[in-house]
Amino acid sequence: MHNSAQNGGQTGSSGQGALQVQDVTVRYGEFVALRNVSLTVNPGEIVVLLGANGAGKSTLFRTISGLQRPVSGTISYNGENITGRDAAEVIGRGVAQCAEGRMLFPELSIQKNLILGAFIHRRDKNGVNRGLEEVYELFPILRDKRHDAAGSMSGGQQQMLAIGRALMARPQLLLLDEPSLGLAPLVVEQVLEVTRRINATGTSVLLAEQNAYAALQIAHRGYVMENGALTLEGSQAALLGNDAVRSAYIGV
Ligand SMILES: Nc1ncnc2c1ncn2[C@@H]1O[C@H](COP(=O)(O)OP(=O)(O)OP(=O)(O)O)[C@@H](O)[C@H]1O
């Protein structure tokens, strides 16, 4: 069991749009990468997952997304058990991941990369076009450069494209794995501002970040992960005020 930071840690919804991860354990061979992890994202929330390199954040995201099977525990979404479902089924339920490292197709155009994100809706051409319009509205630079190769853009623009591609799946819950990795501080702010805007349209967000202070500015709640286990949870204010979080992740 992990601790609650003061004033925080209220969870417990199992209603529409809620993600519930319960007692999930993941191994890579003998190595235990996640140990009895339990976490909730309620509808409409931005929940931040803080943790150092190798803490297990990406493993948790991959497990929720159906790319990694847990050895025990359950993951449910909208009250439905999605544990062990394959990735396409999880996307079809409304959960899309923007993976660490972006995983773009650098030689394909920006627009083709976006359309690939709408794979599960490919028969709905009008819907795909509406999705493109929405993404271009959010990221005008992607419209301007839509015929350019994805790999020709700056790191920040590629991160915008990776987020846009995940949005093309029309998720209710967006899993954002370290979107600020390797970006300049101003670009980090832009990425987090876009995340806030996406959330304002009703999409809930689980955000893995090492950039704790910036992420906590936009998050409603958060968890701290260390060595594959959650050690702390709390509201934005509680985590920002927590001494352990401040010294380990904010550098105060
Ligand atoms: N496929 C794998 N096989 C074996 N060990 C793995 C594998 N993937 C990750 N690990 C190990 O599991 C642990 C958790 O890795 P994970 O990538 O989930 O951490 P993280 O918190 O996302 O860190 P990072 O930000 O560096 O990606 C690390 O010790 C890592 O070396």
The best one-word shape is globular
Q: For this structure, what is the CATH homologous superfamily of the domain at 1-94 and 173-179 and 204-252?
A: P-loop containing nucleotide triphosphate hydrolases
Here the CATH topology of the domain at 1-94 and 173-179 and 204-252 equals: Rossmann fold
Termini separation: 27 Å
How helical, in percent, are the residues?
25-40%
Output the helix-strand order: EEEEHEEHEHHHHEHEHEEHH
CATH architecture of the domain at 1-94 and 173-179 and 204-252: 3-Layer(aba) Sandwich
Mean pLDDT: 90
Structural class: alpha/beta
* SS field, number of helical segments: 10
Q: Supply the CATH class of the domain at 1-94 and 173-179 and 204-252.
A: Alpha Beta
Largest sheet: 7 strands, mixed
Strand proportion = 25-35%
| Strand segment count | 11
Strand order of the largest sheet: 1-11-10-4-9-8-7
Ions and ligands: adenosine-5'-triphosphate
Keyword list:
252 residues; binds adenosine-5'-triphosphate; alpha/beta; seven-stranded mixed β-sheet; Rossmann fold; four-stranded antiparallel β-sheet; globular
Report on this model:
With 252 residues, the protein is of the alpha/beta class. It has a domain at 1-94 and 173-179 and 204-252: 3-Layer(aba) Sandwich (Rossmann fold). It is built from ten helices and eleven strands. The strands form two sheets. Strands 1-11-10-4-9-8-7 form a seven-stranded mixed beta sheet, with helices on both faces. A hairpin with a 2-residue loop joins strand 10 (221-226) and strand 11 (229-235). The structure holds adenosine-5'-triphosphate (ATP).
